[in-house]
Amino acid sequence: MVMMSVLLSFIFPASASLVIRGMSVISLVSVGNAFLSEIRGKHMNYSKFWNANSTEKMQMKLSSKVGMLLSYTPAFLVCLASFWIFPHEGFRSTLLQSALTLHFFKRLFEVLFIHKYSGGMALDTTITISLNYFISTSLMIYDQNLTQGLPEPPINLVYPGIVLFVVGISGNLYHHYLLSKLRGKGEKEYKIPRGGCFELVICPHYLFEIIGFLGVSFISQTFYPFSFTLGSTIYLMGRSYATRKWYLSKFEDFPKHVKAVIPFVF
Questions:
Q1: Are 168 and 214 in contact (CB under 8 A)?
Q2: How confident is the model at residue 46 (pLDDT cuts 50, 70, 90)?
Q3: Alpha helical stretches, state H, the chain
Q4: What is the mean pLDDT of the segment spanning 26-46?
Q5: What are the tens digits of pLDDT across the range 156-206?
Q6: What is the DSSP letter of 159?
Q7: CB 201 within 8 A of CB 262
Q8: How far is CA 72 from the centre of its chain?
Q9: How far separated are the first and last CA of the chain, in Å rounded?
Q10: 52: nearest Cα among 251, 249, 263
Q11: For residue 37, what are the CA distances in angstroms to 96, 121, 132, 223, 249?
Q12: 80, 83, 252, 258: which sits with the fewest CB atoms below 10 Å from its CB?
């Protein structure tokens, strides 16, 4: 009872929607399985791990740019459509829609103008990521819509959420920019990232992505975004662990003090 009372101080009452409740559970279970898969070496097939499971089955390969565009565009379109489907629902809802729109716009901008690619992307991975973001983004916006008419949580986290979101999206963009500068024109080989928070963790872009989604959760203060953020954090910890392990296997001079995603800890 005490735990529930504390929780209700920070979030709206749990949605009565069976869709929201069911998808929250499904999301957590699926990302838990994805975390274990990454730890065990069965990776999502993109970036440096795009062909990690190529011995298991024939895979259709897309270019990384096309794969990433297909991964993010449906969620971005959902965000844009939400302003027409759920117009004028108040400051919090508009802020959530705007944050999600900006998040996926930034991703598309990076795909088109910042990222440099060396591998490909498996079609099944593209479909999985695209569906995940499309469904999760739709549910976050829908869950917010269900709060219309409900009393606000006693503790307002909107403004801390804005700060976290801005820090997260800015840090993620900056470290993607640093990654893009590792290779000269025509180069495709991997190098040890340097600068910024790469001096502390090998995946600072994941760290700032987690911070950004925590900001989205604070802005929303509904159950599903917190569930999605928890699931994303679990998965990205597994992915970053696998990434650090990969760098250790490829580079003898990889600095051992550099952690996976949480400075000094993990």
A1: yes
A2: low
A3: 2-10, 18-40, 64-85, 91-113, 123-145, 158-180, 204-220, 223-250
A4: 72
A5: 999 999 999 999 999 999 999 999 999 877 777 889 999 999 999 999 999
A6: H
A7: yes
A8: 11
A9: 33
A10: 249
A11: 31, 18, 17, 26, 19
A12: 252
Confidence of residue 15 (pLDDT cuts 50, 70, 90): low
Of the pLDDT bands very low, low, confident and very high (cuts 50, 70, 90), residue 120 is confident
The share of the chain scoring above pLDDT 90, in percent, equals: 65
What does each C-alpha distance from 14 to 9, 23, 146 come to in angstroms? 12, 13, 10
Structure tokens at 228: 């999605």
CA-nearest of 49, 147, 162, 64 to 110 is 64
Contact 98, 161 (CB under 8 A): no
CA dist 170 and 209 (Å) reads 9
pLDDT value at residue 2: 47
The DSSP H or E segment spanning 63 is strand 61-63
Query: Do 235 and 35 contact (CB within 8 A), yes or no?
Result: yes
Q: Using an 8 Å Cβ cutoff, are 157 and 218 in contact?
A: yes
Beta bridge partners of 122: 61
Domain definitions of the chain by residue range: 17-250
Q: CA nearest 226: which of 170, 150, 164, 176?
A: 164
pLDDT of 114: 95
Judged by DSSP in three states, 122 sits in strand
The number of C-alpha atoms within 13 Å of 39 and in the hemisphere containing its C-beta is 10
Enter the tokens of residue 204.
Answer: 């600072």
What amino acid is encoded at 100 in this protein? L
